[in-house]
Amino acid sequence: MLKFLMLNLVMMSFVKSWSTIQMSMLAASFLVLMNLNHDFYFFNLGGGLGVDGLSYVLVALSVWVVMLMIYASQGVKKLKNFYPEFLFMNLLLMLVLLLTFCSVSYLMFYISFESALIPMLVLILGWGYQPERIQAGIYMLFYTLFASLPLLVSLLSLYGAQSSLSMLLPLKGGSGLLATKGLWYFCTVFAFMVKLPMYLFHLWLPKAHVEAPVAGSMILAGVLLKLGGYGLIRVLSVFPNENKMFSWFWLSVGVLGGLIVSVMCLRQVDMKSLIAYSSVAHMGLVLGGLATSSLWGWTGAVVIMIGHGLCSSGLFCLANVVYERLGSRSLLIGKGLLNFMPSLGVWWFLLAVGNIAAPPTLNLLGEISLIMSLVSWDKAMMVSVGLLSFFSAVYTLYMYSLSQHGTYLNSLYSCCSGKLSEYFVLLMHSAPLNVIFLKGSMFLSG
Predict the structure, then answer these.
(1) What is the pLDDT of residue 236?
(2) Helix, strand, coil share (%) of the chain residues, nearest 5
(3) Domain range summary for the chain, segments of one domain joined by +
(4) Which of 116, 167, 194, 371 has the CA that lies 20 to 30 A from 15?
């Protein structure tokens, strides 16, 4: 089925009809979801490709988010802003993501992992909003390339030591002095920490989000940030002793960095900037869960990655709807949206509740697992995790109340409340976020 999907992507890249690609992507996304319940481990696809339960869930998320990207980017078609090239870049990005999640070799995974940067850079530079998009693209390029070269050297060294880079074989970290093994470990995981992104190396993310078009923001928050978590899951098993030795460092940076970023969210007046910083806070919690190397931590990290991919992508879509109406993303200008866009108020509420990780959203399931793993690792983490959860609710309610309530500007009164395509995109974000919670046993079963 995945072979058929990849072949379908190649064929769709030559089609220039927007509606044809929309319907094809919708059919493909539902086709992928139909097989989501299958329990398999590294099902062989041939050509160095394979898929297990973890990679298939992220493949389904990739197809789903790219489908919603195309539906949310109607403005590109309306303005005739090189939309055949725009569709081609979206499909190319999805093909690269599928190759990344289905790679069985670490080297092929690295090549696909880095190749995802090129379509994303073209989307930001070609269809971004402001002249600062060039600076944002350069930030993203240099941050990720700076961290990726040590990973390549580490993988080549691993191949020299083990004569294999297959994920199907148990690989062991380097032998020799402790300092050398620690250096090897940091060179391997650093590229994924930057892509996650880890606090202190996250400055490229808000810039990329603010300058990217709505499709770029949706795929960046929905899938590309998950590449870092997926890569960590794949490589941390190679260095079990080193990960146990430095877990305190990743836990500290992840949880305390997320707490600092949560406070920074309260100072943001740009909607997209606030949502982007909130992604850094959520991914800090994911980093902490992965560093514990426990079943609760890894399961919660995967569930949070899926839930955050849907929730954050939907919030960026809502921010774009407001930007198309008002011509500004400022929370100071876009006040009182309930007065002249009342039908979108329920979607703001549902996605804000998902960002807080309130029931019955999928994020709640993930946060319970992560909190259990962090508190089990050290009871002193209760204070930091409690503050992180508290500030997560504070900045989300700050965004919701400031945007929905208050006195609106008189010049904004004559606005279209919402379009059918926008309601469809928001429904396709919030429905899985609340429905998959009912099938949480699928994620929590070993």
Answers:
(1) 87
(2) 75, 5, 20
(3) 1-238, 243-446
(4) 116
